[in-house]
């Protein structure tokens, strides 16, 4: 099914008059992908439509629930969704590479102040520098041990738990055999646990730093 002018008008009108929700939502307040499907065929579902890039769609599904409500319903985010809906699937590898670069260079480094409270921080820094499976595995092992350390403060165990999950989903996303749509979703899961760390550390500037709208705009333009 192609993204039509009629669907574009319906989506724009919907976004102008409705709030986007976490989760799939309802017809009165759908999530980003469900709103696109409502405009396209009237169904409330969060499957990425065939006319849309899977890399973009799976990324949106994973990240939009983490957004503060004012970002998910911002004019900037809503203005990009009709453009994202008709992106097609001819440039998936290029879009996935943008997400990968964003994760390594934009999403993870701002977490350094929070992760620096863990003894594994030098390993974390090496992982960000080397970006390879060896250091991801080292970080996973250290974080797993700390997350299970009953003698550690709860806040430290919580951050270690999130770091462990970041390493887990990085491993899955970077597997050469992983399909683009799944890899994009796994990177979205990395973002989920990254935002959990940022929120626990009260990093109110995090959303400006990661600039999700800016990345979506770049992926659309490819």
What is the fold's blueprint, element by element?
Layout: H1 5-17, E1 25-26, E2 29-30, H2 32-41, H3 54-63, H4 69-72, H5 75-85, H6 92-107, H7 112-115, H8 121-130, H9 133-147, H10 154-173, H11 180-200, H12 206-210, H13 212-221
Antiparallel strand pairs: 1-2
Describe this structure as you would to a colleague.
With 222 residues, the protein is mainly alpha-helical. The protein folds into two domains: 5-85, no CATH class; 92-221, no CATH class. 67% of the residues lie in helices and 2% in strands. It has 13 helices and two strands. The protein has helices at residues 5-17, 32-41, 54-63, 69-72, 75-85, 92-107, 112-115, 121-130, 133-147, 154-173, 180-200, 206-210, 212-221; strands spanning 25-26, 29-30. A two-stranded antiparallel sheet has the order 1-2. The radius of gyration is 18 Å and the shape is elongated. It starts with a helix and ends with a helix. The mean pLDDT is 95.
């Amino acid at each position: 099914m192609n993204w039509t002018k009629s669907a574009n008008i319906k989506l724009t009108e919907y976004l102008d008059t409705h709030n986007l929700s976490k989760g799939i939502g309802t017809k009165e307040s759908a999530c980003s992908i469900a709103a696109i499907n409502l405009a396209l065929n009237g169904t409330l579902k969060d499957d990425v439509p065939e006319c849309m890039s899977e890399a973009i769609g799976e990324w949106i599904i994973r990240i939009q629930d983490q957004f503060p409500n004012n970002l998910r319903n911002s004019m900037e985010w809503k203005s990009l969704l009709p453009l994202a809906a008709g992106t097609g699937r001819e440039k998936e590898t290029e879009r996935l590479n943008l997400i990968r670069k964003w994760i390594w260079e934009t999403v993870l480094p701002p977490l350094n102040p929070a992760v620096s409270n863990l003894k594994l921080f030098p390993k974390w820094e090496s992982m960000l520098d080397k970006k390879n499976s060896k250091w991801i595995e080292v970080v996973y092992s250290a974080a797993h041990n700390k997350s299970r350390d009953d003698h550690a403060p709860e806040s430290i165990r919580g951050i270690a738990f999130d770091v462990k999950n970041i390493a887990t989903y990085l491993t899955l996303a970077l597997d050469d055999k992983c399909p683009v749509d799944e890899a994009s979703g796994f990177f979205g899961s990395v973002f989920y646990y990254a935002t959990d760390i940022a929120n626990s550390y009260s990093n109110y500037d995090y959303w400006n730093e990661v600039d999700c709208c800016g990345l979506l705009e770049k992926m659309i333009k490819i």
